[in-house]
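Just scan my protein:

. . .
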Amino acid sequence: TNDAYRLLGTIDQPGLPAVRLRVYPAEELPGGGPGLGKDGSFVLSEFYIESEGGSHRFAESFATDEVAEWPAWAATDNDRRTGWSVRSGGKSSPEAIFVYGPRKKFLSRQVQFVLRHDAVEKHGVGRFRIEIASEVPRDERGAALLAALKCPAESRSAEERALVTAAFAAARAIRAKQAGDAVTAMVMRDVAEPRPTYIFARGDFTRPDKETGQLRPGVPGAVKPALPGDGQRLTRLDLARWLVNPANPLTPRVTINRVWMRYFGRGLVETEEDFGTQGAYPSHPELLDWIAGEFIRRGWSLKAMHRLIVSSMTYRQSSRARAELVEKDPRNLLLARQERLRVEAEIIRDAALSASGLLNRRIGGPSVRPPQPDGVYAFTQVNKRWATATNEDRYRRGLYTFFVRSAPYPLFTTFDAPDFQTVCTRRVRSNTPLQSLTMANDEAFLEIAQGLAARLVREVPGEFAATLEQRIRLAFEYCYSRRPDASELAALRGYIERQGRAVPAARMVSAELTVKGLTPAQSAALTAAARVLLNTDNFITRE
């Protein structure tokens, strides 16, 4: 993703002192070099390790071959515009050594080695190997080892080669052991002759119904096209081809109906999980047929379908309910207006992060652990440790939140996210007091409210009282995408002024705001106002 390689690794030792990254030329790569550039070159912009939702950068690095403009240390400087590269056309196997200061210890034995290539497009590393050092002592022997590592491989003395070999011997030993212990496990395979399948009398597997005879693979006869009927044995591949056959109307209809449901709160077929005789009849059968046909004609492109729906006049209608529509079509089955929907659990958190300016928009990567209340696992079988991310990963989209089936992320379950133990095609939408309590008191939302307050102060600098009205207007735009009316403006201004005269609670005071010149009372008042704006039906509802 984004020209980044992520490799899962296991640390079989108490800590990690150093890592060696060796790149190899290959005839099948461009220019016969070690990289994917046209001349065989590469530019490694960043190399680091991720574990338990955090990024761990190396303290120092050096290479046996590097370009002056692209030194090895640039792969550890947290700047994706710089990086490490070797002289193009080199046929040797250059290596870079990445060293931690003190031995790095991780919360989990499972880590990810991340290689990013953002500095130059399409210049990834083509062929490489990662090895973990067993030890880099901080004494004279360690200094000699570091000196040996800094030398080009061909220039090392016999003693220096022995030091380097010993340092990385553990990685080779572990790799050899893992290769020797490896076993082959079958995931799936077709048997040469499938076992006979029958309908059982009253479900008793010892009493097959002989009158019905042996069952054969097939599909519903009412749905065309039929599968091959020349007597050959049908396989899963035949079923897969039947599912996406343009003559089969079922797959595109079901898919488009679920896309439609996401935008309007209800599918054209309301029972999106049941298109059978016991399901609901389509409210607009001709529309469903046409848009399903468009799905096929546009190459099964979901992106094209999303664009088609959101650019339609049906989607772009106002959700305001008019008296005549409520009387004629109270459930809005005729789509004479847009639906007013409470957004899904993950989107609520994403919208709050976006409004506060804290949202980390990076796409891809491992799951992360954002803040959650203490004691979530106290009543589960294992009282797990939730290692909350301490860097920008704590602000990643809800899609990447680590999910534990025995105790899911509390914010999501409060807003009706499924439990991941049963099939769910459509989420329910409830309205409970616990949802408002969560928005007001959850640790994550308090941090988001402080972020929104800090964003207002950054973007509207100046004396607190003089800029208050302008900050309130900007907050409404960020939270509701509109300006406040006179009554809303007066109500929120009065609330902030009253909060500013009260004794501030310590947890409401933002250190960032006090640094910018606000008093603790002003900091707490602005944070409280941000929390009020986030904790409204207007914020969590799509109009």
Observations:
- The chain is about 35% helix and 10% strand.
